[in-house]
Amino acid sequence: xxxxxxxxxxxxxWKLRYVxxxxxxxxxxxxxxxxxxxxxxxxxxxxxxxxxGSDVKSFHFTAQFYRLINEAKxxxxxxxxxxRDPDERFVSAVNYNRRLSGDFSDQEFAKKHLSHGSPxxxxxxxxxxEQCFQRICEHTHFRRQVSYVCDADxxxxxxxxxxxNSLSAGLKEIERFFSRDYNIxxxxxxxxMQDGFxxxxxxxxxxxxxxxxxxxxxxxxxxxxxxNDPSIQI
Length: 234
Description:
By secondary structure, the chain is an alpha/beta fold. It has one domain. The chain contains twelve helices and four strands, in the order αβαααβαααααβαααβ. It has helices at residues 3-20, 44-52, 63-69, 71-76, 86-100, 104-113, 119-128, 130-138, 146-149, 167-178, 201-206, 208-218, and strands spanning 34-37, 78-83, 160-163, 224-226. The chain has a four-stranded mixed β-sheet with strand order 1-2-3-4, with helices on both faces. α7 packs across α8.
């Protein structure tokens, strides 16, 4: 099957799921006009539970995908995402796939591509092994953060970006916007990053746009950035 046809089938499959399932529908009224873009390894589970409660399912879909499902509703809701330091996120993704994931495919992926010692060792091996490098970059937990929050032209299409270091402040900003209360929860806590670890070589180049995104958000006053103001539409 052609890749385009496969993507089209996937899109319509999820459109039907959203129509018939309240738990899966990202635009259902029970979500209070907030669309959370769940970037892997960026405190997504904690934020989803804080925003929607424990009964809502969340998936690692991009903002572009949600826009394709229903562009009118996408434009009408507040779109939020959490951004994380790329070095910390890489270590968290390694630890999760090695030790915490209950998914068999994640476990097999870790055995094959993340079993070379420390994160620094993994970088060294992948820098010299094209297949290993590509497999890691293509895995859900290692995809670039910009691919989740930007369109095909690299423009950010999320309204509010929140630093991983300022989750409470970001949630309070959503509270202020909607005049409603949320309670921050903490799930899937990551181990602290190894002191001094920095991505190097090809990985540093691969995540260059993520470093720029992280600097943009983390250096902002308050730890969050309003990229687009949706107040006129909501």
